[in-house]
Amino acid sequence: MNASHVTYFSRARYAVSRLLRAGECQKDETVTLPDHHGGNEPVAPALCRVPAVIQIIQAAEGLDALEPACDVLASKSDMPMQDFAWIRSYALTFAGEGELHFLVVGEPPNVTAIAPLVRRRGRPDRLELLGVNELYEPMDFFGADSSALMLLARSLVRSGIPVLLKRVPANSPLIGVLRHAYRWRGMVFCRPVPGCPWIPLDASWKQPEHQLSHGRRSHLRQARRIAERMGPVTSEVLSPTMNELGPLLEEAFRVEAAGWKGRCGSAMAHDTLKGAFFRRYAAEACRKKMLRLCFLRIGGRAAAMQLAVEYRERWWLLKVGYDEAFARCSPGALMLLETVRYAATRGLRSYEFLGTVEPWIQMWTKSVRPCLSLAAYPANAKGLAALGTDSMAMMRKVLEKR
After folding, report:
1. Distance between CA 135 and CA 273 in Å, rounded?
2. Which residue from 208, 205, 216 is spatially nearest to 360, judged by alpha carbons?
3. What contacts 262, CB < 8 A, 6 or more positions away?
4. Which of 17, 122, 123, 296 has its CA 20 to 30 A from that of 263?
């Protein structure tokens, strides 16, 4: 065992000892928590202890009454993953019986905060953010202000269930709220995880070729010439009606399945659950008129596709794919060029790639929205068991890298 292993064991032992010593008392003090806009908002403990109706929703049909409040609160974050369309689609697709565990402060229509959680029963028992395990997109709690979020955090502490929140935006006020709520009542660990790449758009991106390196521009010109030798090249960004959606979505699924995703079984047409989720979500987004289905056609055939939403003046790229029969003309890159141009011409604020940083994205941008993973361990037997399990799992990873 080398020095790094000893250090890690020491840290794990220290964490366990701290959790064992965590008391059940909470000191009275006023803390200052960062909000989404870079300012500061004081939160008094007396306010956090004001009695409030906090309900737990565990059935998908119980979510419908939350739609108006959910969309109002989600508008503060700009993320479509917090829009009710995403939440309802997930609940109907992935959540098994008893897995949903939404904490809601207030009663409709006077809801001030929502924690979109699922409960993973097992060893250890945990509460996790909805959708992150299956779709790996960022997610967060939503609240009218930090005081409302504190009510959610206090409810989590009282539940006594360990909490694991992956891919929380690094600027989320939830981070400070959780740390304060668990003070003297448990522990909160925070570590960086892969963030989401994005392009901050301005008028210069109306000609996206000029934002790329000379070598990349040359490659795209050559790809375009190859494509034009194969047939007329057209691109389209569609906002389909409900009547138009079915055939267009099937075409998008077929294009994605005609590439490497089809070979490895990860295409929406082959992954039963993800396919069902994106069908539901596309229908919900279409109903809200924010769905965008994009195609690059060569000789009349769809060579590349994108499934995206235009939400809060941003372009959110959810799925991409191309037909490998056209691989030598890089149809995916040509499609991306045209949708970036479209987003900039529309005056949108940003082009959000979602997912994580990949080589093909780095050619377009170096900007990344950082994300964090939060693990909260209450000062009880469940918290200690979860901390022990996580410490051993992390130690195994450390040893495997040696």
Report:
1. 11
2. 216
3. 256, 269, 270
4. 296
Q: Kindly give, in sequence order, each residue whose CB lies less than 8 Å from that of residue 109, ignoring residues fewer than 6 positions away.
A: 68, 69
| Count, residues in the chain | 402
- Cα 208 off chain centre by: 26
CATH superfamily assigned to domain 3-194+371-400: Gcn5-related N-acetyltransferase (GNAT) (3.40.630.30)
Distance CA 53, CA 151 (A): 10
| Res 89 pLDDT > 90 | yes
Half-sphere exposure of 28 (CA within 13 A, CB side): 3
In this prediction, residue 10 carries a pLDDT of 52
Q: Which CATH number fits domain 202-348: 3.40.630, 3.40.600, 3.30.450, 2.30.30?
A: 3.40.630
Indicate the average pLDDT of the chain.
86
At 252-277, the pLDDT tens digits run 999 999 988 888 888 898 899 999 99
The number of helix segments (H) and strand segments (E) in the chain equals 14, 16
Taking CB atoms within 8 Å and a gap of at least 24, the contacts of 101-104 are 101/56, 101/57, 101/58, 101/127, 102/56, 102/57, 102/58, 102/62, 102/63, 102/66, 103/54, 103/55, 103/56, 103/152, 103/155, 103/156, 104/54, 104/55, 104/56, 104/57, 104/66
Two tokens at 314?
Answer: 């941003």
DSSP E strands in 116-251: the ranges are 117-120, 126-129, 142-143, 163-169, 186-200, 233-238
As given in the structure block, the two tokens for residue 332 are: 């995916």
Query: Peptide bond preceding 51: is omega within 30 degrees of 0, i.e. cis?
Result: no
Q: Which of 164, 111, 172, 183 is nearest to 141 (CA)?
A: 172
pLDDT tens string 329-369: 999 999 999 999 999 999 999 999 999 999 999 999 999 99
Q: What pLDDT digit, counting tens, does each position of 197-207 carry?
A: 999 999 999 99
State the Cα–Cα distance between residues 290 and 5, nearest whole angstrom: 50
Which pair of structure tokens corresponds to residue 174? Answer: 């939830």
β-bridge partners, 189? 375
Q: Is it true that 3-194+371-400 and 202-348 share their CATH fold?
A: yes
Letter for the amino acid at 239? S
Angle at 12 between CA 186 and CA 120, to 5 degrees: 55
